[in-house]
Records
---
Amino acid sequence: MSILHFVYVILLVLVAACFQPSHVLAAAQFEDTASPSSYLNNSPCPNAEDIAPCVCTYWDVYHSLDIDCMSIEDEQQLYDVFHANIPDPNFRRLDLGTDNLKTLTDTVFGDVTFETVWTHSTGFYGILTSVGPETFMKSAPTLRELYMPYNNLSNFPFQSLSQYTELTDFVLHDNPVSNFPIIQSENLRYIDLGAATFDIIPTGALDGLPNLEEFDVSSTTSIHSMAA
Ligand SMILES: *[C@@H]1O[C@H](CO)[C@@H](O)[C@H](O)[C@H]1NC(C)=O
């Protein structure tokens, strides 16, 4: 390992160390301000055993449902969870563990919708390698934030992003995205493709993004050509 590589790895570890606790803290603060009521008889959560190992939380003050699928074991299990009896299919947040998930098929989430989707891995990188063009399409009118950092996505159905009418934040940093994606979206404000592997940003690449405020391509291997 060259000294540069070594320094790079140390930097990545530092960045990871700074990055993770702030989100843990954010979650903890959120939980302090309200009490979840997933145990209530009138909770719109599915039966706990129908969706195990995922866990549903109902926040009655917000009238919103979150689902935590951090411990999901494989694709079939995820499919079964979202095709169980789900009385209210409109979730606010999905947290999805990608230690054991390689693929998110078009049909995996059934009729369930989300506003925020986060993937997580317990190691540094999850193994998620493919997302279908329709995977989140039921959420096209609701999805605001899609965060899938630290995975193995060399490609993503970027062209489908134009159909997500509420999507403002799209984060794919630390994925081996090999071609600069041409994205069309009226709403996207924040895109993060940091540490991707493309080396050319084509002319007009940002033309389809009228509301873009920030496009992060930091630590992308080496960008040779850049067009404003
Ligand atoms: C990452 O994706 C590539 C294909 O793009 C695949 O060959 C490789 O096996 C994947 N790695 C893991 C850890 O899944």
---
Amino acid sequence: MNRIIGIITMTLNLIILVRDTREPTCSQLAILTDELIQADKIKFVIVDFEFTMINRKDLLLVSGSMSNSLDKYKPVKLEGKPIVLTTTNKLKMLQNREVKKVMQRVGRIFRNKPELLLLLLGQLEASLKLKGGTILSTTYINQYLHTDNRIPVIVFWNGTTDKEILQKLGLNRKMLNITSYSDNNNNYFNLKLLEISGSTSKLLYSSRIGYQEKNGYYKMPI
Ligand SMILES: *[C@@H]1O[C@H](CO)[C@@H](O)[C@H](O)[C@H]1NC(C)=O
Ligand SMILES: *[C@@H]1O[C@H](CO)[C@@H](O)[C@H](O)[C@H]1NC(C)=O
């Protein structure tokens, strides 16, 4: 665990360096973490899925991006036919006749967030049009996680549904959650690293990153 804390400390330094405290990009995190794990048997894979609910209970996985040190830190986009993850953890292909309904529903969910709506609809259309047999399936994602002999440790930025998606896909791996919140609701924000592999989460590291003023302006610690 000391090693992980070392990695996180470095990550924090990088984040502060790039002044991107709210949401570090996949590549920023990957570049930093990689320096510390060159010699290690583990690699960090940063995972971010695009998804939407398609009815009251089922999730539609639309695309994802992952980055790890093997791919020169570049986030790799995972594209394939969208897949429906049901509450009973079944995986289903999205049927053509369901598409229109899904689009309408997505339109309702994101009616106040036009940028997100456009992004998701665009991605959904692109995925549906994809030629070839790629499906956003367990096998496909698993291949990416295990491109070498290193053990993947999955890192989310504030991920809740991302974890659920991986579990529904049957990909239970060691998982970490990087998040930032104010402990006492006093606008002093802490960056936190939580181990979330099991059903409870364990705080590994916490560090103050700054104060957010009412106007949204972010002050870095000195
Ligand atoms: C990760 O952290 C965020 C922010 O605290 C939290 O909302 C989310 O539930 C956490 N994810 C998991 C899977 O514990
Ligand atoms: C984390 O996610 C929660 C719930 O989705 C959101 O309210 C919060 O603003 C997010 N925090 C960060 C630091 O992205």
